């Protein structure tokens, strides 16, 4: 201190007293992982090192498996009883004490049970991205695309199932992108992502078909009454010839001591009788025998929410839907619905036959009948749906040359496995006395785990109309049928074997159209002349090509059974290395 008289100096000591405080303040709400080791920290500082002590807010003792060291409360194995309110007390002899209250919640960390996979679908089709998470509390799932949350509503193309899976209907190329699934509860949050690619559907060249249609139109106009009469006479003669031929066949079988085949339940020949003679009896029998099972499987129409239309078949519309309270596995189930809109008795009888068939089948490689709606028209048949859709689409996408798609090549082992799985399902179907009549890759479904199931989408009116041919006012899968089915209307287990041979060719040709260079008329002519031949696919194993040829034997008796086919493919699968 300085004055006019002089200066005086002195020294002073300043003591900074640190306040007793938490560093940092413990979070008021924290989580403990059930059945795991967990800990909660409480750190405080002051003028002198404080003593820290944990206690339960209700005054109860800490559990025996919990210990506190230097402010850390550690649980060796967390139990449900460890949840509740706790108090951390920091005390000092010179500064007193402070308290922090913490609520501990015992929970299970979020884990993904099913994560989305890279998926490629055709434009206009439906994409399914799976995302299922578990935890306690039950985690909430939401989807993001390009940093934007996808909102689900009844009118939106994006539908989030209650199990977390995302269904996108009528996809376009703009839907291509990385989809992120975020699952979280009060204790943890996790995310996982997958790429969706949308590609344009390839169009098979069908040279000559349009010209043929125009020719038929002019030919119809030019027909005269005289030609019509001659046609009727020719048809009557042909019917008499066919009837006599079948009669001779039955006589030959009777002389040889053989029994007529009984496996043509839905074919034209059944124990020596024509379909026209037994159609009504089969329909009535189907209704009677399945009455009890249908009553049990009856499903409320109001519990179905349509997602998107997949296409149209001879019965009517085929669509994808969400079904509430369908199965115990979850509150919602993704299902395939086939509607019966047609009033034609032949279509109605075929619908009943198909309903009867699926109601009696229970196999891992055949889609399940989940329910029926018959209280009003149109009637609904509710079938199991598999996430990646039909096998045809899966095969075609794998051939894409678009570098952006990064398609996964299908190994020979996987191709053999696909064929074996279809054979397994068809063996079950055949053993139960049923005939499919439309077996092809388009009528099989495949999952992300490469599990294949035989189904019957039969989208003959639009999506796959190019693979059907109108013959005698009926749409038939011409390129998958043997001669006896096309020209004599006979459908048996062995006609399904012929179709299975074509399906194997599809699998190893990666979804190519059979006889791609031939028009439908040329296929008809080749089938009638017995000269129709499918070239062996590239890199197809010799034993598979040999099996295909056996399936296409002109005589049904010379074709193998599905049991033989399954045994051959199962044995060859073990030997296949690539």
From TrEMBL:
<keyword id="KW-0879">Wnt signaling pathway</keyword>
<dbReference type="InterPro" id="IPR013783">
    <property type="entry name" value="Ig-like_fold"/>
</dbReference>
<keyword id="KW-1003">Cell membrane</keyword>
<keyword id="KW-0479">Metal-binding</keyword>
<dbReference type="InterPro" id="IPR007110">
    <property type="entry name" value="Ig-like_dom"/>
</dbReference>
<keyword id="KW-1133">Transmembrane helix</keyword>
<keyword id="KW-1015">Disulfide bond</keyword>
<dbReference type="Pfam" id="PF07714">
    <property type="entry name" value="PK_Tyr_Ser-Thr"/>
</dbReference>
<feature type="domain" description="Ig-like">
    <location>
        <begin position="26"/>
        <end position="105"/>
    </location>
</feature>
<dbReference type="InterPro" id="IPR011009">
    <property type="entry name" value="Kinase-like_dom_sf"/>
</dbReference>
<dbReference type="GO" id="GO:0005886">
    <property type="term" value="C:plasma membrane"/>
</dbReference>
<feature type="binding site">
    <location>
        <position position="443"/>
    </location>
    <ligand>
        <name>Mg(2+)</name>
    </ligand>
</feature>
<dbReference type="GO" id="GO:0016055">
    <property type="term" value="P:Wnt signaling pathway"/>
</dbReference>
<keyword id="KW-0472">Membrane</keyword>
<dbReference type="InterPro" id="IPR000719">
    <property type="entry name" value="Prot_kinase_dom"/>
</dbReference>
<keyword id="KW-0325">Glycoprotein</keyword>
<dbReference type="Pfam" id="PF07679">
    <property type="entry name" value="I-set"/>
</dbReference>
<keyword id="KW-0812">Transmembrane</keyword>
<feature type="binding site">
    <location>
        <begin position="384"/>
        <end position="390"/>
    </location>
    <ligand>
        <name>ATP</name>
    </ligand>
</feature>
<protein>
    <recommendedName>
        <fullName>Inactive tyrosine-protein kinase 7</fullName>
    </recommendedName>
</protein>
<dbReference type="InterPro" id="IPR036179">
    <property type="entry name" value="Ig-like_dom_sf"/>
</dbReference>
<dbReference type="InterPro" id="IPR008266">
    <property type="entry name" value="Tyr_kinase_AS"/>
</dbReference>
<keyword id="KW-0547">Nucleotide-binding</keyword>
<dbReference type="InterPro" id="IPR050122">
    <property type="entry name" value="RTK"/>
</dbReference>
<feature type="active site" description="Proton acceptor">
    <location>
        <position position="438"/>
    </location>
</feature>
<dbReference type="GO" id="GO:0046872">
    <property type="term" value="F:metal ion binding"/>
</dbReference>
<keyword id="KW-0067">ATP-binding</keyword>
<feature type="transmembrane region" description="Helical">
    <location>
        <begin position="221"/>
        <end position="242"/>
    </location>
</feature>
<keyword id="KW-0393">Immunoglobulin domain</keyword>
<dbReference type="GO" id="GO:0005524">
    <property type="term" value="F:ATP binding"/>
</dbReference>
<feature type="binding site">
    <location>
        <begin position="311"/>
        <end position="318"/>
    </location>
    <ligand>
        <name>ATP</name>
    </ligand>
</feature>
<feature type="binding site">
    <location>
        <position position="338"/>
    </location>
    <ligand>
        <name>ATP</name>
    </ligand>
</feature>
<dbReference type="GO" id="GO:0005911">
    <property type="term" value="C:cell-cell junction"/>
</dbReference>
<feature type="domain" description="Ig-like">
    <location>
        <begin position="110"/>
        <end position="197"/>
    </location>
</feature>
<dbReference type="Pfam" id="PF13927">
    <property type="entry name" value="Ig_3"/>
</dbReference>
<dbReference type="InterPro" id="IPR001245">
    <property type="entry name" value="Ser-Thr/Tyr_kinase_cat_dom"/>
</dbReference>
<keyword id="KW-0677">Repeat</keyword>
<dbReference type="GO" id="GO:0004714">
    <property type="term" value="F:transmembrane receptor protein tyrosine kinase activity"/>
</dbReference>
<dbReference type="InterPro" id="IPR020635">
    <property type="entry name" value="Tyr_kinase_cat_dom"/>
</dbReference>
<feature type="domain" description="Protein kinase">
    <location>
        <begin position="304"/>
        <end position="574"/>
    </location>
</feature>
<dbReference type="GO" id="GO:0007155">
    <property type="term" value="P:cell adhesion"/>
</dbReference>
<feature type="binding site">
    <location>
        <position position="442"/>
    </location>
    <ligand>
        <name>ATP</name>
    </ligand>
</feature>
């Amino acid at each position: 201190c300085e004055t006019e008289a002089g200066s005086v100096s002195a020294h002073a000591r300043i003591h900074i007293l640190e306040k007793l405080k938490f560093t940092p303040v413990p979070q008021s709400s924290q989580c403990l992982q059930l059945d795991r080791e967990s800990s909660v920290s409480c750190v405080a500082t002051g003028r002198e090192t404080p003593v820290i002590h944990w206690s339960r807010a209700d005054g109860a003792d800490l559990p025996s498996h919990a210990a506190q060291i230097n402010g850390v409360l550690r649980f060796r194995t967390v139990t449900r009883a460890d949840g509740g309110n706790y108090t951390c007390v920091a005390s000092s002899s010179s500064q007193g004490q402070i308290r922090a209250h913490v609520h501990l919640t015992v929970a299970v960390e979020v884990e993904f049970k099913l994560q989305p996979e890279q998926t490629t679908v055709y434009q206009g089709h439906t994409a399914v991205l799976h995302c299922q998470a578990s935890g306690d509390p039950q985690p909430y799932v939401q989807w993001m695309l390009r940093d934007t949350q996808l909102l689900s509503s009844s009118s939106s193309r994006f539908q989030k199932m209650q199990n977390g899976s995302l269904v996108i209907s009528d996809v376009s190329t703009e839907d291509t992108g990385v989809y992120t699934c975020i699952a979280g509860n009060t204790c943890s949050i996790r995310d996982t992502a997958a790429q969706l690619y949308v590609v344009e559907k390839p169009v098979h060249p069908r040279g000559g078909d349009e010209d043929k249609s125009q020719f038929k139109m002019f030919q119809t106009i030019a027909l005269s009454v005289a030609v019509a009469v001659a046609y009727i006479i020719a048809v009557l003669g042909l019917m008499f010839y066919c009837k006599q031929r079948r009669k001779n066949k039955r006589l030959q079988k009777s002389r040889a001591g053989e029994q007529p085949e009984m496996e043509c339940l839905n074919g034209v020949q059944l124990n020596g009788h024509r379909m026209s003679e037994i159609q009504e009896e089969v329909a009535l029998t189907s209704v009677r025998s399945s009455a009890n099972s249908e009553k049990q499987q009856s499903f409320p129409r109001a519990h179905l929410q349509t997602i998107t239309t997949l296409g149209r078949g001879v019965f009517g519309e085929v669509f994808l839907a969400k079904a509430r309270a369908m199965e115990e596995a979850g509150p919602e189930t993704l299902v395939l619905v086939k509607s019966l809109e047609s009033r034609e008795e032949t279509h109605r009888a075929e619908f009943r036959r198909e309903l009867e068939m699926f109601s009696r089948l229970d196999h891992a490689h055949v889609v399940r009948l989940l329910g029926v709606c018959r209280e009003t028209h149109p009637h609904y048949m509710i079938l199991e749906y598999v996430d990646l859709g039909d096998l045809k689409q899966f095969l075609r996408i794998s051939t894409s040359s678009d570098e952006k798609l990064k398609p996964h090549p299908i190994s020979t082992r996987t191709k053999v496995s696909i064929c074996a799985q279809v054979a397994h399902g068809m063996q079950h179907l055949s053993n139960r006395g049923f005939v499919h009549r439309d077996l092809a890759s388009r009528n099989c479904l495949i999952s992300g785990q490469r599990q294949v199931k035989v189904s019957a989408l039969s989208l003959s009116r639009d999506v796959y109309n190019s693979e059907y041919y109108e013959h005698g006012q009926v749409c038939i899968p011409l390129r998958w049928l043997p001669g006896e089915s096309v020209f004599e209307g006979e459908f048996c287990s062995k006609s399904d074997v012929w179709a299975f041979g074509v399906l194997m060719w599809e699998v190893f040709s990666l979804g190519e159209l059979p006889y791609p260079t031939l028009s439908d008329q040329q296929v008809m002519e080749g089938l009638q002349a017995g000269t129709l031949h499918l070239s062996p696919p590239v890199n197809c194993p010799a034993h598979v090509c040999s099996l295909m040829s056996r399936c296409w034997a002109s005589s049904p008796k010379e074709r193998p059974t599905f049991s033989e086919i399954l045994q051959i493919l199962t044995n060859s699968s073990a030997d296949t290395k690539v």
